[in-house]
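Following up on my earlier thread - several people asked me to post the actual chain instead of describing it. Fair enough. Here it is, all 282 residues.
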Amino acid sequence: MEKESRLLNIGVVGAGPISQAAHFEACRKARNAELYAICDLADDLVTQMAAIHHPHVTYLDYDEMLADPHVEAVIVATADQFHASMASRALAAGKHVLVEKPLGVTVEECEALRKDVQASGLLLQVGTMKRFDPGIAFAHQFIQDEIGQLLALKAWYCDSTYRYIETGNLQPIPVTSAHARRPAGNPKADKRRYYLLGHGSHLVDTARFLGGVIVRVQARLVEKFGAYCWFVATEFADGSVGHLDLTMAVRMDWHEGFQVYGEHGSMIGKTFNPWYLRSSEV
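Reply from S.P.:
Thanks for posting it. Predicted structure:
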């Protein structure tokens, strides 16, 4: 693949599953970016990933990577509990940041990070990538240009009971390390919190991208047979209403999409499991 003459040098911190399945290869394939550095505390993991992806340099110390003047931007792909602090350190070092979703695990640390971004003059982007799906991007443009006033929006994100069978066939076999840094305790054991942060962030971002700022929510949760279902009534800043459905997990195929009712038209979108790399149908 032909690269552009001016490439953005990216350092990826965190060599775990999401970097292995997405970020390393994306940096290598991007025509305007370069996988310049890989950083992780686990030396065995760094060695194996470097052998596969061939970065220019590797680091076992995050501060050392941040001090490298050749690193222009950082992808934070660590455990959720480290996202905000590591993104803040990258900004302080003068690096642009792409931080995996969720942005953080508390409102307070996200608001503090927002202040850091504003003070830095640098770019920070959250890895809620749905808005870059060509179908969803088209829906957004249609709403802006054609649909007129919005009346209502429905959006749903319903994971499948057999999604890991599918993703296991689509993704590379992850390489693990006993030396990887992990958050204290077992955060994923709190299913309510984990599902809302890790999956609800996608649903809310899609709703905001299409419907605008959400000013009010009222949510109900039902838990049965190991499944969790949130129905959320929303109100948008323009006075339109919404309904969000986050269900983990449905006894069916991956079920994600949206409906929008407007003054001059309406639309319905079907979104696919993202690991199929397939555009939404709108």
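The mean pLDDT is 97. That should answer part of your original question.
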